[in-house]
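pinned: reference chain
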Amino acid sequence: MRPYSLMMLIALAAPALAATPPIDRPALAAKAARRFPQPVRVGDLIGRRLLEPAERQAVLGRVRGVVRRADGGVDLSVETGWLFGRNVLVPTEAVGLLGEHVALLDLTPEQWQALPEAGPTPAIPPGETIRVGLAKPFH
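pinned: its structure tokens
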């Protein structure tokens, strides 16, 4: 079997990423509203693990911050640890609180890979409260 370089893997993945359907934010918001959104302090989310939505619950990354989008929505800044610690913005509408963790719920693997990189957006202060829905255990 031939070894692949990092650049070759990225080039192979590029066509799949180009065909990724965009995230339907209104549909995500409707699903999130049915999850009994709970008030949670931003500082209490930082450092939590983001879990894969499967029974094995692999860790996808850690929450490093919380930012407000231009449309008023809230994203979690998650460091994935993949490819030199990629830092992506995950909509809070696509996650749920699961005990001491945060579970990814409503994104396909393709949408997960196509999430935007976290930029210089100012973080929401740790003392501010946002609302995040609850997740059912995966097993």
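why pinned: The chain has one domain: 6-132. Residues 6-132 form a domain with the SH3 type barrels. fold (CATH 2.30.30.240).
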